[in-house]
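> run fold MFS transporter
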Amino acid sequence: MRDEFRRSQLAIAALFGFLGFQYSTWAARIPMLKSSLDLSNAQVGLLLLATGIGAAIAFPIVTFLMRRLGSRRLALVACVGLTLVLLGLAVVPNQPVALAVMLIDGVLVACLNVAMNAQGTALEVKYERNTMAKLHAAFSGGIFTAALIASAVTAATTNLLTHFTLGAAILAALATLASRSLLPTDLPTTEKAKGKLTIPSRTIAWLAVAMVFVTVVEGAMNDWSALYLKEIIGAPPAVLPLGIAVVSATMLLTRLFADSRRAAWGDRQVVLAGTTIAGTALSAALLIGGLIPTLIGFACVGLGMAAATPCLYAAAAKQGPNALTLVATMGTLGLLAGPPAIGALTNATTLLYGMAAVALSALLVTACTTQITWTPTREPEPARATD
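> ok
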């Protein structure tokens, strides 16, 4: 039994790592895409927005495909599509084609996001162990690994096709690993849950809103932390990567150990405590200023927001597949459309106000959490288990 759990856990973790790796690979080469396609800053923003639009229109598509294919087959289909998207971005000839590719990327990201979280929740239910936080740690690990590889490849060559072909090979390996031990069935659901789309309940609506704000925080910290250190703090170039580094590192480490806290405190308390820490610490850092307070504030964002996403996905899955699809789609929308929205606010004001909106988003998750009806979490994965 333990070996079966481990195999499925590894397979599903490969899906999470796949999504993080694919996203980070193309995001790391945005400057090169801008140069090769001769885009303005506004056109780059539109390119990023296209992925958010794809995620926004994906909800009915994902709902249909989840019922028709199930999470296992949908995840693998999405993996194939996202690998092709990455290769396509390397050879797009102009902005209109790039916009179409990014629109497709948004739809496929939404598909994989729903499918992999459905698999993760089904794993928790089947084996009665908390593991969602560890699975989301694999997503963070995928982002981090892709960033390191992008840095190494960029130092060797500026050729996008070379980089993205290497990325596609790694994605294919992850998809192959995932395909071997994914769960064949999804969560058991009622007939009502399987039926037509209905108006979301109060709890589902609050879960969806909370997920938008959570992923806005995550996406904005990924995209704007380095620029904040440069423009507002005046940090030297060598220090700029520390912005995303402290966020991603604290988030990754926290997710590796968060499942035991979920069992001990309950998902509600974990989210409340974490988002409160993230919002207040970042607000304090913005008010105090200076490099060290800012990096501490960034680290607290990673620490506080790390468990929010897996807790919200787990809560949504317990409400049924349609609820999970809606919440995951809104999460994808927040992750992809949030950074351009922060950019628009920054253009109208300053980056200080943009980062203040990130802090406010974290505190709004706290407010949403108080309105959600939470069900008890499962026992944590035991440190030692017997067959």
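Confidence is low (pLDDT under 50) at residues 189-195, 383-387.
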